[in-house]
Amino acid sequence: MAAALSGLGVRPGDVLLVHASLRALGPGVGGPVAVLTALRRAVGREGTLVVPSFTPENSDTSPHYRARVRGLDAEAREAVRSTMPPFDPALTPAPSMGALAETVRTAAGARRSGHPQTSFAALGPAAGKLLAGHRPDCHLGEDSPLARLYEADARVLLLGTGFATCTAFHLGEYRRPGPPRRRYRCVVAVRGVRQWWEYEDVALDDSDFAALGAAFEAAAGPGDVRKALIGSAPCRLLRLRAAVGFAAEWLTDHR
User: Is 247 a domain residue?
Assistant: First the structure.
């Protein structure tokens, strides 16, 4: 696995934002611990791995919540809301992010940013710097780890996933002129007291990311996109700066 990652272009010292589908990769690559071990070997001691550790489960404005309460009456929906635990960066799991992300989040020495909805977890010497200052009313914009990854000239590894999961494109949403905004709400703990918190931020929309990714790949410059088969799945390694820059222009023209 580590050799395959190196063949794709992962280098010692890299900062990698990783999205992974172990099911797509197939059983031949091993489980999440084996994949994490291979990733750490590929980036070496000086490299840093970053994964999304998002928590839509503690929000009542998320698609996850709407799917969960679909068909329930008002009383049943309120019962669901009353049992949703507040976000705790040290404890709250991110089950919808996949097994590898959870393995990174719970690994010894891992760091996690503090956003109650769109936190990131990281392992490596740059983890603290990349995750610091994640403002709670900025999901994935200039005061989020995505902007710090952009500054670090990070790369995005789509390990068995497609462009539809490419979180980096969201930074392009913030960087287009006048992005629409909306209200969000989630459960937090303030001085140990559970409460609902509502805030405004850019309206995130990944519904066209697959088309955006296809256009980016077609127009990519040398080294911006590298592809290889790892396990059973096609995988891609992207330059995050190139992906974000292209996304900001494409989204301006197509939305």
Answer: yes
Q: For residue 15, is it within any domain?
A: yes
Flag whether 150 is in a domain.
Answer: yes
The boundaries of the domain holding residue 7 are: 2-59+88-177+205-254
Query: Which residues share a beta bridge with 198?
Result: 185
Phi-psi region of 84 (alpha: psi -120 to 50; beta: other; left: phi over 0): beta
pLDDT computed for residue 28 by the predictor: 86
End-to-end Cα, the chain, rounded Å: 39
Q: With left for phi above 0 and alpha for psi between -120 and 50, is residue 133 left, alpha or beta? A: left
Residue 80's pLDDT is what?
95
**pTM of the full predicted structure?**
0.95
Q: How many domains does the chain have?
A: 1
Please give the pLDDT value at position 35: 97
On whether residue 70 sits in a domain, the answer given is no
Q: Mark the ranges of the chain whose per-residue pLDDT is less than 50.
A: none
- Beta-carbon contacts of 200 under 8 Å, excluding residues fewer than 6 positions away, are 137, 181, 182, 183, 184
d(CA 177, CA 246): 14
Determine if residue 160 is left, alpha or beta; phi over 0 gives left, psi from -120 to 50 gives alpha, anything else beta: left
